[in-house]
Design a protein that fits this description.
Helix 1 crosses helix 2 and helix 1 runs parallel beside helix 3. It contains three helices and five strands. It is globular, with a radius of gyration of 17 Å. By secondary structure, the chain is α+β, with helices and mostly antiparallel strands.
Length: 140
């Protein structure tokens, strides 16, 4: 007698794996490697991408991209207390990497329309099964 039991997929494992792939695609798109990235797949899920650039208006601070599952991507500056968001991309919580590249280019160009100053609430934290379905699968 043979019994097949469907345990279902491990949502958190799948989510972390897909999110890691997505953050890696964004990192590659902005010109850095995975060594510049950190990822927290907990709730709220978050990511950090260190960049090799500084903004002229903040010459003593490194620039980074930060992401969380509630607010999406933001450009941030680093100081001794951590990362401080300058502006948020808005729109989608998981936009295609090309959209993040355009956002970062606008931030670096000091474009006043680069993003929004207030953190958008794009979704509630949690429900990674639903967020997993939103992670882009194609490479950009």
């Amino acid at each position: 007698m043979s019994i097949l039991i469907d345990f279902g997929r491990d949502t958190e494992f799948s989510f972390e794996r897909r999110l890691r792939g997505y953050v890696g695609a964004v990192a590659r798109a902005v010109g850095v490697g995975l060594e510049s990235c950190t990822l927290d797949a907990g709730t709220p899920a978050a990511a950090y991408i260190a960049l090799d650039w500084r903004l002229s208006r903040f010459p003593g601070h490194d620039l980074a991209l930060v992401w969380d599952e509630v607010h999406g991507w933001a450009a941030a500056i680093e100081d001794t207390t951590g990362a401080t968001a300058l502006c948020y991309l808005g729109g989608e919580v998981l936009p295609e990497p090309r959209a993040v590249v355009r956002f970062l280019a606008a931030v670096r160009a000091d474009d006043p329309d680069a993003g929004t100053l207030e953190a958008p609430a794009l979704r509630e934290a949690g429900d990674h099964e639903r967020l997993l379905a939103m992670v882009p699968t194609g490479r950009s």
